[in-house]
Amino acid sequence: MRIMIAAAGSRGDVAPYTGLGAALRRAGHDVTLAATGTFAPLAREAGLDFRSLPADTRGHGDATGKRDLMRTAAAFVTELGQGFADAVGKGTDLLLLSTTTAPLGWHLTEATGTPSLGVYLQPTAPTGDFPPVVTGSRSLGRLANRATGRLALRMADRVYEQAVAQLRHRLALPPASPCETRRRREQANWPILHGFSTVLVPRPADWRPGLDIVGNWWPHHDPAERLPTDVEDFLSAGPRPVLIGFGSMASGDGERLSEIAVRALRRAGLRGILQAGSAPLTADGDDVLTIGDVPHALLFPRLAAVVHHAGAGTSAAALRAGVPAVPVPVTADQPFWARRLATLGAATDPIPFRSLTAERLADSLHQVVKQRSYGRAAAAAAQHMAAENGARETLKTVQRMTGG
């Protein structure tokens, strides 16, 4: 079967699908990853075919405020919609759609009859259990949580208005708003698999049928891959270090963040590894090492703690390794995951990115490393996650849908 996975966004929005795609390929399917061009190497390293989507997150700058985030998202989605049908719609038997690409992909399935399945990295359906992940707010109570969840979906619909109008015209479909299309999918109980752990988000009892949580899809890495020699040497030279990194967040803020990181580490009396990321972070010294991209699965189990931006993938990777965290959320769904980690007891209270100082970070680092309860909670979560297999559950769903 020819399966296409369509995903768009930052690295954390795309990398998990390389592991899912590799698992589907091992099961005998032809798998293509459709994503923005910068992720072609990730797809090919996983043995997947690649098709480029017509957009790039790097072209729209950084946004941390809600209004700026909406404006940036709309510009990205409109660009993504241009040529989406040409990139995704050819020679596909089953379309797997991410949170970002589903509101575009629905129109392709309508036009071509190609079956589709949601493969989401965040919970988007309204529930009384928690407020929408994009609001960054604390629980407002069950009724208000559901109401704000419905409002968040309508706000997301607005982001897709121009892209959907253009796409439906391109596909010779009659006009239909993003809201109308989404509601039709909901009424049909369109299936969505959520690639995160039930240890962080148990399935809400008030979700409609067709919404399931299957466990994480982990980014692909070569089983033969090893950590770079300089990283191994640093790990062996003393006590377990702390990793500090912000992934694709905080672009251009590297000098300030590097200074904060080093001061905090030395104030807390800890060795540290700075992961450059988009900032980029950098520092020199016997007690600190700067690195580029390395697989989380190889590095995280060797650490005392991780300071991160609380993206869904990084949050899950730290838990999987049984390593506690200091979350420093920047925007979007990150405050949601940061609060989930803290509620679980596997992380300190979040430090909002704009409130980050060396003193606050040092205090949190001292707390998370010295108090063993954080490590115990992370280890318990790791044990729970080890019993989950998101790729296997997704394969079962694919087989049920296709009779294969």
Task: List the defining traits of the structure above.
Rossmann fold, alpha/beta, five-stranded parallel beta sheet, single chain, 2 domains, seven-stranded parallel beta sheet, 404 residues, 12 strands
Topology record:
Elements: E1 2-6, H1 11-14, H2 16-26, E2 30-36, H3 40-45, E3 49-53, H4 66-81, H5 84-88, E4 94-97, H6 102-112, E5 116-120, H7 142-159, H8 161-170, H9 178-187, E6 192-194, E7 211-213, H10 229-236, E8 242-245, H11 254-268, E9 272-275, E10 288-291, H12 296-299, E11 305-308, H13 312-320, E12 325-327, H14 334-344, H15 358-370, H16 372-386, H17 390-402
Parallel strand pairs: 1-2, 1-4, 2-3, 4-5, 5-6, 6-7, 8-9, 8-11, 9-10, 11-12
Question: Explain this structure to me?
Answer:
With 404 residues, this protein is of the alpha/beta class. The chain folds into two domains: 2-216 and 388-402, Glycogen Phosphorylase B (Rossmann fold); 229-386, 3-Layer(aba) Sandwich (Rossmann fold), CATH 3.40.50. The chain has 17 helices and twelve strands. It has helices at 11-14, 16-26, 40-45, 66-81, 84-88, 102-112, 142-159, 161-170, 178-187, 229-236, 254-268, 296-299, 312-320, 334-344, 358-370, 372-386, 390-402; strands at 2-6, 30-36, 49-53, 94-97, 116-120, 192-194, 211-213, 242-245, 272-275, 288-291, 305-308, 325-327. The strands form two sheets. The chain has a seven-stranded parallel β-sheet with strand order 3-2-1-4-5-6-7, with helices on both faces. Helix 11 links the parallel strand 8 and strand 9. Mean pLDDT is 92; it is low at 59-64.
